[in-house]
Amino acid sequence: MPPLIISLTSDMFPVSVLHQMSSHAEPEVLLEKVGRAGVITMNRPKVLNALNLTMIRQIYPQLKKWESDNETDIVIIKGAGDKAFCAGGDIRAVTEAGKVGDSLAQDFFREEYILNNAIGSYRKPYIALIDGITMGGGVGLSVHGRFRVATEKTLFAMPETAIGLFPDVGGGYFLPRLQGKLGLFLALTGFRLKGRDVQRAGVATHFVESKKIPDLQKELVDLKSPSAEDVSRVLDSYQSQSSLDAEKPFILKKHLSDIDRLFSASSVEGIVKNLKTDGSEFAKKQTETLSKMSPTSLKITLKQLQAGASLSLQDVLVMEYRLSQACMRGYDFYEGVRAVLVDKDQNPKWNPSTLEEVSDQMVEQCFSSLGEKDLTL
């Protein structure tokens, strides 16, 4: 089995790496027109293309421009380097801002979610080449688009409960729409999916071998006024030529019915009780994983996905913005980032420290309206 989040290391949250930008610094995001395709490249390979506010502020207006531009037919988004598509948002900067009351703590989430919504409602074919680590904010840049192409190098996770946050960027929309309780399982445990399994789970639409990606991109760029169906045909044809790992079963296949059964309780306490009662090796592992997560995050996340199952992406993002600001007002997000990213002792001291101490009222408060400060889409 792949490593669970219980082996959480700072490389899951690579935004902790701070690079001194030299005077001839590379642009953090490349926006190019290649033929009739708009191509976005996240260009911070040394920090696994972590997404910051500067990048969001470049990508969003360009996306809107291409959407209404008659000379642009499709948009392709990818990551520079050979390790990551985008390993997450630059959350260390966000917590630093939150501590001193800097507006980045609002601006980052607001503008990131506005970008997620623009991708989710994009009127032209949007193709994310997720050829590498794709977590958190990187999932938000890909999963809401029409096409998501995984490769054997793709590593997907939503590991936010381990840092006192919740699976945001529209996680409340896409996760409950995966098969059965799979999305809730991924949201609470931060379980990592690799390669073809990212498609099998429904997170990616296609699987193409990494070495074929340059040819795939060239073929997509060369399409003449393509419809979504034309793009689909090209992706299908590359997928049919990619047999790597096809014979390997989905890593969670034998556990799917257990996941549906064990994670169907209406409370986190109920899920933990189910896991402890079950006592299988798999259930024990999940119990151990959940015991390391922020109890507040676990409860917020369950309610987020329960609500999100019947909401539009827009309404989910409005809800998640409220949750993001509740986390900025709280304690666990700062403590989680400290333990995982800053001091790297991997030993967060959550407050409250048990599920029982997180009251329904505390959870409810996180979802309450911010009035005129609410996200508007």
Sheet with the most strands?
Answer: 6 strands, mixed
Total helix count?
16
What percentage of amino acids are in beta strands? 5-15%
SS class:
alpha/beta
Q: What is the approximate shape? A: globular
Q: Helix and strand succession? A: EEHEEHHEEHEEHHEHEHHHHHHHHH
* Distance, first to last CA: 41 Å
Number of domains: 1
Furnish the topology, listing elements before pairings.
Elements: E1 29-34, E2 37-42, H1 53-68, E3 74-79, E4 84-86, H2 91-99, H3 104-120, E5 126-130, E6 133-135, H4 137-140, E7 147-150, E8 155-157, H5 171-174, H6 182-189, E9 193-194, H7 196-200, E10 206-207, H8 213-222, H9 228-240, H10 256-262, H11 268-278, H12 281-292, H13 295-308, H14 313-329, H15 332-342, H16 360-366
Q: Could you name the key traits of this structure?
A:
16 helices; branched-chain amino acid catabolism; single chain; 11% strand; 2-enoyl-CoA Hydratase, Chain A, domain 1; 377 residues; 44% helix
Tell me about this structure.
The protein is of the alpha/beta class and 377 residues long. It has a single domain, classed as 2-enoyl-CoA Hydratase, Chain A, domain 1. The protein contains 16 helices and ten strands. It has helices at residues 53-68, 91-99, 104-120, 137-140, 171-174, 182-189, 196-200, 213-222, 228-240, 256-262, 268-278, 281-292, 295-308, 313-329, 332-342, 360-366; strands spanning 29-34, 37-42, 74-79, 84-86, 126-130, 133-135, 147-150, 155-157, 193-194, 206-207. It has a six-stranded mixed beta sheet, sandwiched between helices. β2 (37-42), α1 (53-68) and β3 form a beta-alpha-beta unit. The protein is globular. Hydrolyzes 3-hydroxyisobutyryl-CoA (HIBYL-CoA), a saline catabolite. Has high activity toward isobutyryl-CoA. Could be an isobutyryl-CoA dehydrogenase that functions in valine catabolism. Also hydrolyzes 3-hydroxypropanoyl-CoA. InterPro entries: ClpP/crotonase-like_dom_sf, ECH_dom, HIBYL-CoA-H.
